Amino acid sequence: MTALSDFVQHAQHGDVHVLRLANPPVNTLRTEIRAGLHAGLAAAQAVGAKAVVLIGSGRMFCAGAEMTEFGKPRQPPSLTEVFDAIEGFPGVVVAAIHGSALGGGLELALACHARVAAPGAMVGLPEVKRGFVPGAGGTQRLPRLIGPEEAAKIIISGDPVPAEKAVKLGFVDAVIEGDLEAGAVAWAKAAIGKTFTLARNRTDKVGGQDPAAFEAVVAGLLKRSRGQESPKGCAEAVRASFTLPFEEGLAKERDLFATLVAGEQSKALRHIFFGEREVLRILGMPAEAKSLPVERLVVIGGGTMGGGIAMSAANNGVPVTIVETSEEALQKGLARCHANWERTVASGRLSQADYETRKALLTGSTDFEGTVAKADLVIEAVFENMAVKKEVFARLDKAARPGVVLASNTSTLSIDEIASATSRPELVVGMHFFSPANVMRLLENVRGAASSWATIATATEFGKRIGKLPVLVGNCDGFVGNRMTGKRGPQVEKLLLEGCLPADIDKVMEGYGMAMGPLATGDLAGLDIGAAVRKARGTVAPVADAVVALGRYGQKTGKGWYMYDEKRNRLPDPEVEKIILDVAEKMQVRRRRISDEEILDRMLLPMVNEGARILEEGIAYRSIDIDVIFINGFGWPAFRGGPMFWADTQGLKTVRDKLARYAEATNDANLKPTALIEKLAAEGGTFAGMGR
Ligand code: NAI
User: Fold this and answer.
1) Which residue ranges have their beta carbon within 6 Å of ligand 1?
2) Which CATH number does the domain housing residue 208 bear?
3) Which residues of 101-117 are buried (b: 16+ CB within 10 A; e: fewer)?
4) What is the structure's pLDDT at 266?
């Protein structure tokens, strides 16, 4: 191979030339790649090549546009110019896809005369997940190959499909077993002289499209994306594929792309996309800090959380043993895991064979010492009680081999105090999973005062290995996520007293995009938990306390802030309204109509203020860590970017002023702007800009 540029290599096999994208591991379409492709096609044409194969290097064919080039002046050649060169090539251009072809990478392939792929290669247009539409013809070429309805499914969901499915749908021509480059060259050689109709010139799939059938498919797809703009933009672009000629469709797509990419939602989605990578880079971690090897996990406690954690391990191929106090509790815990997997098999999302594999990886025991002695990592998930935890850790310390990390899934207790029960505090760390632990991606890893880098590296690497997104946080009550949401409570109380009903607050938060409003979430988690915490802390919440006093603990008792029908639909309950009105009258609060904007502010501002305090204390290292926590563990919509991103977009001066106003108006000392917010507001700074 000769290097055309540093980023595209050129080789020749008789009449067939090969252009290899060489910006591994993911070959984003940065300027040098575009230039290299453009020059490579011209060079091949100049020497009379009859076919060209485009192929990737590293992990995949191509992951798409180089997002770091967005918003900067465009350097030629544009992708469109590259595509023009492909479509104008006097021969066959074949894309050979391995790993994946995503976004601009798939659009590049769609501009080619034909596409072949390695078995299992994934192809898709995930732009919608970054808040925009495919911007290089994907919304016009894909429908012309497979029809607007199938194209809408791929483009609006953003989910890639395997090459085998793409062959069935008709946008990949063949799956090639064995060496992809050799196979693709042979395929291209055989294709020389055959006629290929370029996607742009195809009319057979879009010509007879029934608009009503298309709208029905789109309506179904859009139901899942409440409040988000890019799925609607994708639908509009795909619609243009059968209502407009190709060039006009491209222009429509370009307009939609330009508008959406400049919008707040796309900024938020990209903030999270990059953030989820950034959080894994742990500040200050020395390069030589290495994760300890983990062959076998032992989970102490097979309850709600222990079971979910064990399932995550088995789901990802890690042998795991649950330790319980009695045979009965153990069998109950294992049965819950099995039943969960069986439901997944029944729904068709897990094969029987994979289920058997997972089941074989998950074992149980009541022999605490004997099992722990074989562990490479222990995660404790017993009752949330300091005395119990300390007793368990003292036993773990004696039973586990020296050098083994002991982690606790505690959601509120001090890791340092737990570690003090052992002779190895440097090997103790928090691994705070979220419920349901086999589903939720967030893992708050809690660093104790003595936790070593190797311990932190082990918690991080192991978390990644079992499919989680680990975010390192400091040790404090509630850590980051629960500590921040906890600060909403007093404002919920005040809003209820001043004029809201539960549904008013939930409606605003769900309208903002939250999976579930705070009161409905309380009903799901159990209102008795919050009541117990208040009791322990000696605080009161007159309305919530009155609700709990009536035995209304939430969904588990059939009623809480709402009442629930047999299908668990929530309904407003006049009894709750009466409680609220009675308490307000007793406390002499005059009720008024409260605007949606005020509700949203009073739900988000307390969290932002606490987030700032968490940054001041170094409990979270960067504001992006906080945002990633909320997106992955608290049902916060990614297209809103998280609480700290929200504050930055409001402007911290506005945030400061509103906090000060509500602190006074609602007599809530928690809302007094923190020193960090005062400082950033005065400097015109942002959370995201800190330390940059
Ligand atoms: P759970 O009550 O469902 O399970 C605890 C299990 O531990 C029980 O099955 C019990 O038999 C077992 N156990 C108690 N002492 C033991 C011992 N000495 N040896 C072995 N097993 C023992 O409780 P859950 O909800 O699973 O909570 C466990 C931990 O996870 C707590 O620290 C909790 O704060 C934390 N957590 C809970 C979340 C939730 O949403 N439920 C979320 C995140 C963390």
Assistant:
1) 300-306, 323-325, 329, 381-384, 388, 392, 409-411, 432-435
2) 3.90.226.10
3) bbbbbbbbbbbbbbbbb
4) 96
